[in-house]
Amino acid sequence: MADSSKTAKTPSPHTHMTKKCPECFTYLPLTSKVCHSCGKSVGPVTRLGLAEKPPNLKGYVMAAIAILAFFIFVWWGFFTE
Ligand SMILES: [Zn+2]
């Protein structure tokens, strides 16, 4: 009956020819891992044509250690004599 499924287009994130650095908004090739302008590492392109910021593993680890140290400090201060 209806053959609208053939004409229906699904938007793809890979339609962009370039991506933009999230830090300095320089246009970069889709394959680049590092911004040639500001030197920040960039992830894959998003639907908006921006490059994703890659997860900052070092930052997460440092935050986790800081939070853990804080809880140990509180526990130490309240529950030990
Ligand atoms: Zn940049």
Question: Care to give the gist of this entry?
Answer:
The chain is mainly alpha-helical and 81 residues long. The protein has helices spanning 4-7, 57-79, and strands at 18-20, 27-29.
What would you say this structure looks like, in words?
The protein has 81 residues and is mainly alpha-helical. It has 2 helices and 2 strands. It has a two-stranded antiparallel ribbon with strand order 1-2. A hairpin with a 6-residue loop joins strand 1 and strand 2 (27-29). The radius of gyration is 22 Å and the shape is elongated. Zinc ion is lined by residues 21, 23-24, 26, 35, 37-38, 40. Residues 21, 23-24, 26, 35, 37-38, 40 line the site of zinc ion.
Main traits of this protein?
2 helices, 2 strands, binds zinc ion, 7% strand, mainly alpha, single chain, two-stranded antiparallel sheet, 81 residues
List the helices and strands and how they pair.
Blueprint: H1 4-7, E1 18-20, E2 27-29, H2 57-79
Antiparallel strand pairs: 1-2
